[in-house]
Amino acid sequence: MKMKGIAAVYFSPTGSTKRAVMEIADGIARKAGLPVREVDFTLPGAREEVRKFEAGQLVIFGTPVYAGRIPNKILPAVQTLFEGNGALAVPVVTFGNRSFDNALIELRIELEQHGFHTIAGAAFVAEHVFSKKLAAGRPDENDLQVIRRFAEDIAVKIEGIKEGDQDGMAEIPAPVAVKGIEPVPSYYRPLQEDGTPANFLKAKPKTADSCNDCGICARVCPMGSISPEDCRTVTGICIKCQACVKACPEGAKYFDDPIMLSHTRMLEQNYARRAENEVFL
Fold it and tell me: For 206-256, which CATH class?
């Protein structure tokens, strides 16, 4: 099958998902001699229009894993803002060393339900946004090699899909088989160090005196919840993505919620091993 176009679609508050998705899309595009259409729906302003694709196109679609699934505040965007119309798709999730649980199968289901035909899928490890001790520095060079081989394998698989003749449709592949439970169960329930539930939904970033009011944190918040007029004020929902923390040039943004910190310590104590990437073709 000859591709008409390639798109890299992602929600990526701290950049890890974007890196994985773009690495895949660029690798396939180089082989196919096609440009990559980049669709970043991380910020609120990018979630105001429907993106439509068509048969013959390939879409690499990525999100991070939050509590074992697609981030719950972003799931409605995945469900309403993308129309496949027969395009091929590769669902990709990134996870912070614990597990991707059911995020990948959930993303595959959503893409299939909205007109895409999934032909491959993958879960890649990325440094946990809560802790630099979990998957530190990942994706590293070994991870990138896995991602690049995955891109090569996707390109080969697409080449093997039969084209339709003048009177027939192109071959429609079966949905890619990926790890996960269907129907998708509830979100993973975070735990504290003592094994009790960790409820830190109301936790919001604090601002240190080193803040110089540059406004970067307000510009990168995927929920638009940090006031541009006073970046010390969080006016709306916080999804704990850490975009503001990672982007602050002064290191002035931080979380000090004790339950959230206890959950982070639990993760560091129990999930310090090197988790492996998983690809499905």
Answer: alpha beta
- Whole-angstrom distance, CA of residue 99 vs CA of residue 246: 22
Residue type, 260: M
pLDDT digit string, tens, across residues 166-221: 555 567 889 999 999 999 999 999 999 999 999 999 999 999 999 999 999 999 99
What's the CATH architecture for 5-164+176-186+274-280? 3-Layer(aba) Sandwich (3.40)
DSSP codes, 11-77: --SSSHHHHHHHHHHHHHHHHHT--EEEEE--SGGGSSS-EE--TTEEEEEEEE-BTTBS-TTTHHH
Closest CA to 95 of 118, 137, 60, 63: 63
Partners of 95 in the β-ladder: 125
Q: Within its chain, how far is the Cα of 3 from the centroid?
A: 24
